[in-house]
Amino acid sequence: MSGRNTFLRFTLVLLLPVSCATAQSAGGLTPLQMMKMRAVRSVHPSADGSKIAFVRSEPRLPGDEAGAAWSNLWIIPAEGGDERLLIGGKRKVEGVSFRPDGRQITFLDKREGAPHNEVYGLPMDGGEAVRITTTEHGVAGYQWSPDGRFIAYTVSDPPPKERDEAQKAGFKQVVVDESWTHTSLHLYDVEAKTSRRLTEGKSVMSFEWSPDSRTIAAGLAPRPLVDDSYMFTRLHRIDVEKGTVEPLVDNPGKLGHYAWSPDGGRLAYISAADVRDPHPGMIYVVDAADRSVRCLTEGWEGQAHHLQWLNSTTLLCSISEGVVTTLAELDVTGGQFTRRPADRLAMRSFAMSQSMKTVAVAASRPFHPPEVYVWNDGWRRLTSSNPWLGDVELGTQEVVRYPARDGLEIEGMLIHPVGESPGTRHPLVIVAHGGPEAHFDDGWMTSYGNLGQLLAAKGYCSWYPNYRASTGRGVKFAKLDHGDPMGREFEDHLDAIEHFDQSGLIDRTRVGIIGGSYGGYTAAWAATRHSEHFAAAVSFVPFVDIRTKWYTSDISWEFFYVHYQEKWPHEQLELLRERSPLTYAPQCRTPILLCGGAADTRVHPSQPFMLYRAVKTATTTPVRYVQYPGEGHGNQMNVYQLDFCLRALEWFDHYLGPGDHRGDPPPPMDLDYSTWLGKQPG
Fold it and tell me: Is 332 in contact with 314 (CB distance < 8 Å)?
């Protein structure tokens, strides 16, 4: 299952400031330290490449009002030096960009006198931010035209007058799949301070200006629904002066990033190879004149994430090949990659200055969350968001590869326990990523859901596999689960247990599993269908009955096309029953902790609830279901992130100790929050 604002990869990191970090470093990372980490979320080079603005997440600390992390705006010289805070405090900075002439750094904000988000500009030579746009309904997302004359921006259309009046009177019912308005593209003339609409009857999911500021490429969908954004978004071309909109590419399935060539004659774009391809990852070029399309990466066993033109014949791309991410130059005439040294950085996108002088990324390594890096004949780190982390003892992270039972090589990252003793067998926790169209990079692996170094601090090994059906290894590999959910892909997890057991690394009687979304489905499957292999399971936002999940999710069409061979549930009831954890609830012997958001539209809250009731009534196996109010497909609130983290660690500690604890009652319902609350434990 996919989702830009979902729990697909199960790798969200809540990041918080340095000053309140605890002094507990011996023995590894603590949950409180994890909750206080900060991280760089995006980078924005100035037009001349001399400076890099960046957004850093700032966690809400103990004592703050509960909520999601703040985000502040900083700037640093591209050559290195002191970073300077531009917009700080309890703010959520978004939509950062440099004005093409370099005079201002712009961002979205809602300030006094503006009832909704507008574009503001902060002068680079000092002074207060000034409002740039004045629009009727606000700005959701925007881009400057290269000549600086216009701002193209998106905003949701207002509801019809009658519906608006009814809603104000209290009629706020939702008609499923119908209570929406389009997200339209508008053009703001900066000098004239006027706006005009560019699109009608379609929803704009993304857009990019051409270099001459005369054309906009846009991904348009029939409706502003999640399913439409995935499966039905197609590339169009908009003539800015005439206001005409015409199809450019009938790209199949999912659409990724795209960029115009320097002369505006071609558009390079990342797309799914076909409608059943789980993820956009192949690179194509379309000729703007005759609309002819050429694939540059057919058969490539990798995945592209982001691209920009270096010149008329070369693209700069961020790519994944297995667990390795890097930048590579792609010759558009011959289709050959020239890879830059990866240096064990994990990244998905990059930003290049208008002058092409500076390339910057927000990237992590196995020993730190994302920071600002720049390319200068090699990667150079500019920021240190958590300097105290250097004093914390961390478990060693290594890339491991092993052959599955059918000979296919599977790879992933293994984090060893802190202070590991040679010859000692340790408990193992398998961390199953969601999607399954996702994959783990060899970077920082610790978050409220992935636990990584938190498990290492407690003496666990943790395994992050890119099992078959993961992305990063080409289209064929990503399709290996199609028509076979929890078939051979799950055998990859069992083969990992066998591999680490044969290596003398783990105690196979003390194996746990955790995952979110599709990873939660995996954990639920492990606890029910394969109970004999797992002593504990933690399943977050899982679906447990494919038939009912399909009919209650916001991505039913993606399920139809991508995951289930273009067959609806009624056409394959027996397969879906046979591959649903709920079917095997009566044979569950693995203590299972189920958690999820009460407002989840991707996986309805009834899914974990059903498995909870089934295990509770059909067995004596310990089971607990924790529901988080107001949360969707992944926790955004700091307190709920911490709660899930602590509960998962407690569950594993309770059931993965030496001996057989499967029959032990669950740990106490109430957790010890004393450290977070500033009290003495106990």
Answer: yes
How many CB atoms sit inside 10 A of residue 102's CB?
A: 17
What SS3 class is residue 460?
A: coil
The 3-state secondary structure of 249-299, one letter per residue: ECCCCCEEEEEECCCCCEEEEEECCCCCCCCCCEEEEEECCCCCEEECCCC
Contact 441, 346 (CB under 8 A): yes
Q: Do residues 364 and 41 make contact, with C-beta atoms less than 8 angstroms apart?
A: no
Number of domains in the chain: 3
Helix axes 488-502, 518-528, angle to 10 degrees: 70
> On the CB side of 395, how many CA atoms lie within 13 Å of its CA?
28
Residues of the chain above pLDDT 90, percent: 92
Contact (CB, 8 A) for 111 and 117: no
37-87 confidence digits (pLDDT tens): 999 999 999 999 999 999 999 999 888 999 999 999 999 999 999 999 999
Cα radius of gyration (the chain): 25
Ramachandran assignment for 592, one of left (phi > 0), alpha (psi -120 to 50 degrees), beta (any other): beta
Same domain, 565 and 672: yes
Domain that holds residue 292: 261-353
Domain boundary among 215, 250, 285: 250
Element containing residue 142 per DSSP (H, E): strand 141-144
Say yes or no: 477 and 531 in one domain: yes
CA distance 212 to 232: 28
pLDDT digits (tens, 9 = 90+) for 275-302: 999 999 999 999 999 999 999 999 999 9
- Residue of 518, 515, 583 whose CA lies nearest to 553: 518
**118: amino acid identity, one letter:** E
What is the secondary structure of 176-197 as a DSSP string? TTTS---EEEEEEETTTTEEEE
Q: Give the predicted TM-score (pTM) of the model.
A: 0.94
Q: Which amino acid is it at 86?
A: L
Residue 629 token pair: 């109010």
Residues 296 and 217 in one domain: no
CATH code of 406's domain: 3.40.50.1820
Q: Which residues contact 93 (CB under 8 A, 6 or more apart)?
A: 55, 71, 72, 73, 87, 107, 109
Residue 480, CA atoms < 13 Å, CB-side half-sphere: 21
**H or E, element range at 628:** strand 623-628
CB 429, CB 451: distance < 8 Å: yes
Is the pLDDT at 1 greater than 90, yes or no?
no
Cα angle vertex 296, ends 246, 475, to 5°? Answer: 95
469 in Cβ contact with 489 (< 8 Å): yes
Q: Report the DSSP beta bridge partners of residue 155.
A: 184
Given the structure tokens 């990041």, which residue do they identify? 15
Quick one: 267 and 246 in the same domain? no
**Same domain, yes or no, for 273 and 398?**
no
- The first and second tokens of residue 93, run together, are 């900075």
For residue 634, is it left (φ>0), alpha (ψ between -120 and 50) or beta? left
Yes or no: say if 154 and 186 are a contact pair by the CB < 8 Å rule.
yes
| Residues 6+ positions from 501 with CB-CB distance below 8 Å | 508
Residue 151 maps to a domain: yes
Q: What is the mean pLDDT of the chain?
A: 94
